[in-house]
Amino acid sequence: MRLVPLELWLEPVPGPLRPQILAALRPYGEPLRWAITAVDSSSDEAPAIEGSQELSPAPVPVPVVGGDTSVPQGAGAVGLGASVCLGARDGRAQADQRGDGPGRLRLEAVMLR
Amino acid sequence: MTSAAPLPTLLVIPTGIGCAIGGYAGDGLPAARLLAAASGCLVTHPNVMNGASLYWSDPRIHYVEGSALDRFAAGELALRPVRRQRLGLLLDAGIEESLRLRHLQVAEGCRASLGLEIGPVVTTDRPLEVSLSRGPSGMSWGRLGQPESLLRAGERLKALGATAIAVVSRFPDDDGSEALQAYRQGSGVDGLAGAEAVISHLLSGHLGLPCAHAPALAPLEPDPRLDPRAAGEELGYTFLACVLVGLSRAPDLVSLGADLERRGAMADPGLLWPGAIGAVVAPAGALGGGPCWLALNGVFPSSPWLTLACWR
């Protein structure tokens, strides 16, 4: 049994999102913790699941933004229909999407294998 | 004059992503208390309620571990409020003797002063080997070198009669990293929280019991620039008291997975059903987890007037 961090990009299709997320994660094990942490609305030709990557267990320094050590982008993505705003600490809108749904979603997860 | 019926409300403040409210040491508590008073019934999770040595007990607040909260929101669990739980204490074999003694004395203090029922104490058969990391977004993550040992200890506690489990595992000490300083000064991410979530998710999912986690750490040097939101963690030698208090009245987790289970649950008038939830509240910018997406996508098994509220 191992715990494996995972980053995965998902292009959702219309319909309930949670089953799509769980289906996308399933090949990598059982998700212990997952969240959508970014939305990339620039791509319109990504496959359903574009790619995934197991992440290094080594600590990653948090970038310093404006003198603050903060979550830089998208830790906790907000999807409210046509508007997507990213950024956990200040809620600034860092990406806007207009259209019929979110673009590619970045999932961060810890998987149990 | 009659009061309005409770509006069961779900408060979700994701762990380890740097939320300005609720991202530190129990600093989501004032919001939780306000929502509990306004709604009459609040379901929330340990990250909101745990302030290390600080806590608040309110019968209107239901303390539900994060993965159980996800399953509740997905309609897979109902909650059964109880008067008390019999708490099992699960200690990591990697905790050194003096720190272990501190934790045992906190448990004894909670038994003696608060009247909590703290039952069996089990130590893992191997050190759990917790390591900390960050995800691409900066959210805190963690790993466990010996997950099977955690589960074996949890199974022993359950067999010994524990109905809820407080886990204490030895976390790596931080000798003053920039990230820790930022957190203590109110501008950073809780670097421990992601690993804590993984541990409690793993154990609660495996056992089907309420679980919550406290990290065991050596005390830090005082910081004159400490942010008040992080101050709850400076008051003592452990983070265990809030976990024991929270779990002491955590609702039972009632599986709704099989038809038989669902029929049995429907006969229980005391259950809080996911379909009763009328509002979901979360910080703006932190809606990327399961319960919020369920609400946003209209698949939350709730009444049609479900409201999703955010604060900035």
Keywords:
heterodimer, A: 113 residues, mainly beta, 4-stranded antiparallel β-sheet, two-stranded antiparallel ribbon, 1 helix, 8% helix, globular, B: 312 residues, alpha/beta, Rossmann fold, 2 domains, 5-stranded parallel β-sheet, 4-stranded parallel β-sheet, 13 strands
What does this structure look like?
The complex is a heterodimer of chains A (113) and B (312). Chain A has 113 residues and is mainly beta. Chain A has one domain (3-55, 74-112). Chain A is 8% helix and 39% strand. Chain A is built from one helix and eight strands. Chain A has one helix at residues 17-25; strands at residues 3-10, 30-40, 49-54, 64-65, 68-69, 78-80, 83-85, 104-112. Chain A has a four-stranded antiparallel beta sheet, with helices on one face. Chain A has a two-stranded antiparallel sheet with strand order 4-5. Chain A is globular, with a radius of gyration of 15 Å. Residues 45-50 and 56-100 of chain A have low confidence and may be disordered. Chain B has 312 residues and is of the alpha/beta class. Chain B folds into two domains: 9-82 and 252-311, no CATH class; 87-246, Rossmann fold, CATH 3.40.50. Chain B has helices at residues 29-39, 46-49, 66-73, 97-114, 147-159, 178-184, 193-207, 240-248, 259-266, 290-296, and strands spanning 9-11, 42-44, 61-63, 77-80, 87-91, 118-123, 130-134, 140-144, 164-170, 211-216, 252-255, 279-283, 307-311. In chain B, helix 4 (97-114) links the parallel strand 5 and strand 6 (118-123). In chain B, helix 4 (97-114) crosses helix 8 and helix 5 (147-159) packs across helix 7. The longest helix of chain B is centred in the middle third of the chain and has 18 residues, at 97-114. The model of chain B has no long low-confidence stretch (mean pLDDT 89). The interface between A and B is large, with 51 and 54 residues.
